[in-house]
Amino acid sequence: KQEVTQIPAALSVPEGENLVLNCSFTDSAIYNLQWFRQDPGKGLTSLLLIQSSQREQTSGRLNASLDKSSGRSTLYIAASQPGDSATYLCAFYFTSGTYKYIFGTGTRLKVLA
Amino acid sequence: NAGVTQTPKFQVLKTGQSMTLQCAQDMNHEYMSWYRQDPGMGLRLIHYSVGAGITDQGEVPNGYNVSRSTTEDFPLRLLSAAPSQTSVYFCASSPLKVGGPPYEQYFGPGTRLTVT
Question: Could you read off the pLDDT of B90-105 as tens digits, one per residue?
Answer without folding.
Answer: 999 999 877 667 788 9
